[in-house]
Amino acid sequence: MSLVAVCIPAAISEAQQPAQQSGQVAAPKTVPTPGIPSTGFAGLDQYRASRLAMFTDDYGQLARYRTANQELERAAPALETVVFFGDSITDGWKLETYFPGKPYVNRGIGGQTTPQMLVRFRQDVIELHPKAVVILAGTNDIAGNTGPMRLEDIEADLASMADLAKAHGIPVVFSSVLPVHNYTPKAQDFFAQRPMAKILLLNEWLRGYCSGSGIVYLDYFSALVDEKGLLKKELADDGLHPNDAGYKTMVPLAEAAIAKAAERK
User: Fold this and answer.
1) What is the CATH class of 2-263?
2) What are the residue ranges spanned by the domains of the chain?
C-alpha cells in the first residue's frame, strides 16, 4: 500500500495540469457519432466508432489468430511455447527480435480490454497448451475503449483468466500495467484517459492477488517509472507504447518471470 501512498500525489498533480506544461496541447473537442455517447476524447471516440462492426460481429476478435493457431498446432504440436497475451503493447512487441530463438508466441491485439481478452482466452491460450502465459492487460479498460470499467470488473476478468489457466495446468505471469506520460503532444490523450491513480490501484491489487495465489508478478512499472511517477520519456514516444528502449528494458524482466513461472509448474 505504500507504493500507492507515495506515488499518487505526484501523478495526480501531473494529471490535473496536462495542458499547462511546455509544448503540450489540450485534447481537441470531438463531435460524437449519432447514438454513441462521447468520451470527451476525439481519438477515443473515433476508435470506438471505427470498431462498431467488430463489437457486434466478433467482439473478442477470435478471427485474428484462428488460422495462425491452427498452423502452430500442426507445425509444432510438442513445442513448449510461452504465450504473450495482451493488447497493443504486446501486439507491437516483435518477440522474434527481442527474444531470438525462443518459442514465444505473440497473441496481442491492439485496443483490446480484459472482457474481450477473456472471450478469446480459450482459443488463443488454453488450446495452444503453452508452458506459461504472460498476461499484460488493463490499460485500455481504464481508458474505456469498450465502455466505462470499474476496477473491480477489471480485477474479476483478470482473476477469471487466472482460474482458466490454472484449471488447465498453465502457469500464469501477471504483468503490471505500465505507467504513462504526458511529456509529448501526442501523449496527451493517452495520458488523460488513464489516470495514474487507477493504474497504481490496479497494480497494487495485481501484486496482492499474485502473492496470495502463487502467481508470478512481473513488475514492469517500477522499471519504467520516473521520479515524477510517470513513464520515462525516453521509453515511449507517445506516452503509452514502449519504443525500442522501452521493450529492451522489459525483456530481462519478462525472461526472469517466465523462468520463475516454469519452476512452479
Assistant:
1) alpha beta
2) 2-263
